[in-house]
Design goal:
The structure holds two protein chains of two kinds. Chain A is mainly α. Chain A contains twelve helices and two strands. Chain A has two domains: 44 residues, no CATH class; 207 residues, MetI-like fold (Orthogonal Bundle). In chain B, the strands form four sheets. Chain B has a six-stranded mixed beta sheet with strand order 6-7-8-3-9-10, sandwiched between helices. In chain B, strands 13-12-11-14-20 form a five-stranded antiparallel beta sheet, with no helix packed on it. In chain B, strands 15-19-16-17-18 form a five-stranded antiparallel beta sheet, with no helix packed on it. The chains are: A mainly alpha, B alpha+beta. The interface between A and B is medium-sized, with 19 and 28 residues.
Chain lengths: 270, 343
């Protein structure tokens, strides 16, 4: 009985997620859809053709978004992993202050700090460049990654590494063979979140990219304020796609073959 | 293969200004000997073990293996395999991979390694579980795998940190026998940390008793019962009879009369102790005196009596065929060979 009721809630939850997508998908494939028709009277692939056919900046924007997203993810994990290990695994002086400093970029409104960064970047020749945009995306992605990874390593006690050491493993071997494999699901989740944060970044990109670095959210925003709902819908689907993929992959990792270390700060299933 | 271990004046404090977790501990372990580090929780026994393993650097003192200091040697090079209270099996590896871990770190050839792993698993009766993941095993099984994982590396020192305390009573006894047998057969120099005096007595060749980071007594298990070094030591081993007195020419003047003991008592004020099992009732002769039964508790295989003799409270544990009731007047006797004068 409990199982059946569980299913009903699942279906309801799925509907709540899916319903906003229905008009989006309909618009993306609509040829003719006038008020007060409930459904489009004509379907077409006009929007998709227009995006693929070139003569627009969609391929460039997708590529930029991907490059910046992947680079920001890699850099965030590279910085967040040691930070998370240190904060989660060890006690040290001024630990509270360090956590505060790491969280500061997401506590301070990004606009405030980015104004100052913009001036510096202009001086350094980093504004209006893909590299500059990548750097500024680290402001929100590093804190998130560091915090997720902190909880990953806080759950590990270090005793396992001690056991490995007494069995003949060097510090690096103990990390490589014992700690890291257990942290992989958590690292994957942190990376996916970092990618999503970068992928959906708008303000920072506009400020530092100054309109010369085009990413997908920028095209989406300008299309949304325009008059063609078909193009907007196509872009919106394109924009949401990675988020959906990431969500599915993340959920798989979180369930992760019953491996508890994957349950990053989201509570354990009862 | 098995090495001697010597600890010299070892002290450790976790932070400056803290009380020392271990202070001035000196201890020797013969090759192939099993020494139990015994004491209540927080007495510094685990700290001492971690220093031996190299996971902790001591504040002062030295640790020698086969006469050479190992303080500069990192844990992974000490060949001191440790088994912890929790099994701490690596969850990302199978049982076989867990047991083979130490050999893999030492780059042992694959065919040698898999034969050794197989042997080790057979020794702890876990053959047939090689392909399982740790999560699929019970606590006792996991702890047996942890033991195999340590033994397979043929360590110079085997360091056991309360490996049985997380198991339930039945399993604990079984594991105790297993640990004892494997340590004897393998001839490992073993340091076994425990807070359970019965466990220490059953397993150890010698026991080192620690209170508050200080070594109280280091001797064979029998000595802790027969010749405890202090009132605290005697009490930790279940002795409850303490008789104050004044030692004079080979005997001790006490409220119970003049008591003679076979061992010597230093002249002056002293405290005599005797185990409850050694107290005789309804026997007259040397060292006997009248006493009154103030309580009798039947425990099946024994009856515990509390006695009052001239204001001195004594406990006696006797076989159940002698039955006395509360209020009975008896003659109690403290055999001279069982009396011991505490320092």
């Amino acid at each position: 009985m409990g199982k059946k009721r569980h299913n009903i809630w699942l279906i309801l939850a799925a509907l709540v997620v899916a319903i906003p997508f229905i008009p989006l998908v309909l618009w993306a494939f609509a040829g003719e859809w006038r008020f007060p028709e409930l459904l489009p009277t004509e379907f077409s692939l006009r929007g998709w053709e227009q995006i693929i056919s070139g003569g627009n900046r969609v391929p460039e924007a997708v590529l930029n978004s991907l490059i910046i997203g992947v680079a920001a993810t890699a850099a965030s994990v590279a910085v967040g992993l040691p930070a998370g290990m240190a904060i989660g695994g060890y006690e040290f002086r001024f630990k509270g202050a360090v956590i505060f400093l790491i969280l500061l970029p997401i506590l301070v409104p990004p606009l405030a700090s980015t104004m100052g960064i913009h001036l510096t970047f202009i001086r350094l020749g980093l504004s209006d460049t893909v590299f500059g945009v990548f750097l500024v995306h680290l402001i929100p992605t590093v804190p998130y990654t560091a915090i997720i990874l902190t909880s990953v390593f806080a759950d590990m006690t270090g005793e396992m590494e001690e056991a490995a050491r007494s069995l003949g493993a060097s510090p690096w071997q103990a990390f490589r063979h014992v700690t890291l494999p257990q942290a992989v699901p958590g690292i994957a989740v942190a990376a996916l979140f970092a990618f999503l944060v970068s992928w959906s970044q708008y303000i920072l990109t506009v400020l530092i990219g100054g309109g010369s670095v085009i990413t997908l959210p920028m095209l989406l925003f300008s299309a949304a304020s325009g008059s063609d709902p078909v193009i907007t819908s196509v872009l919106a689907i394109l924009f949401a796609l990675p988020a959906l993929v990431v969500l599915v992959v993340a959920l798989r990792f979180l369930r992760g073959g019953g491996d508890e270390s994957g349950m990053i700060g989201l509570g354990k299933p009862s | 293969m098995s090495a001697s271990l010597e600890i010299k004046g070892l002290s450790h404090r976790y932070r400056k200004g803290d009380e020392a977790a271990v202070s001035d501990l000196s201890l020797d372990v013969e090759p192939g000997e099993l020494v139990a580090l015994l004491g209540p929780s927080g007495c510094g026994k685990t700290t001492a073990l971690k220093v031996i393993s190299g996971l902790l650097a001591p504040t002062s003192g030295d640790v020698l293996v086969d006469g050479a200091s190992i303080l500069g040697v990192p844990p992974e090079k000490r060949e001191a395999a440790m088994v912890f209270q929790k099994p701490l099996l690596f969850p990302n590896m199978t049982v076989e991979e867990n047991v083979g871990f130490g050999l893999r770190m030492r780059r042992v050839r694959r065919e040698d390694s898999s034969r050794k792993v197989e042997d080790a698993l057979r020794q702890v009766r876990m053959d047939g579980f090689a392909e399982r993941k740790p999560g699929e095993l019970s606590g006792g099984q996991q702890q047996r795998v942890a033991l195999a994982r340590a033994l397979v590396t043929e360590p110079k020192l085997l360091l056991l940190d309360e490996p049985l305390s997380s198991l339930d009573a039945n399993l604990r006894e079984e594991m105790r026998e297993l640990v004892k047998r494997l340590c004897r057969e393998g001839g490992y120099t073993t340091v076994f940390v425990t807070h359970d005096q019965e466990e220490a007595v059953v397993l150890a060749d010698r026991i080192a008793l620690l209170f508050g980071g200080e070594l109280q007594m280091h001797a064979e298990p029998e000595a802790f019962y027969d010749h405890p070094s202090s009132r605290e030591v005697a009490r930790f081993f279940g002795a409850t009879n303490f008789i104050e007195g004044e030692a004079k020419n080979g005997s001790v003047e006490t409220p119970l009369g003049r008591l003679r003991l076979e061992s010597t008592a230093p002249p002056g004020r002293t405290t005599l102790t005797i185990r409850p099992e050694a107290v005789r009732l309804d026997e007259s002769g040397e060292n006997s005196f009248p006493a009154k039964v103030s309580s009798a508790t039947y425990l099946g295989t024994q009856v515990h009596y509390e006695l009052d003799a001239n204001g001195v409270k004594l406990r006696a544990a006797l076989p159940p065929h002698i039955r006395l009731e509360k209020g009975d007047e008896v003659i109690a006797r403290l055999p001279a060979e069982s009396l011991w004068a505490l320092g």
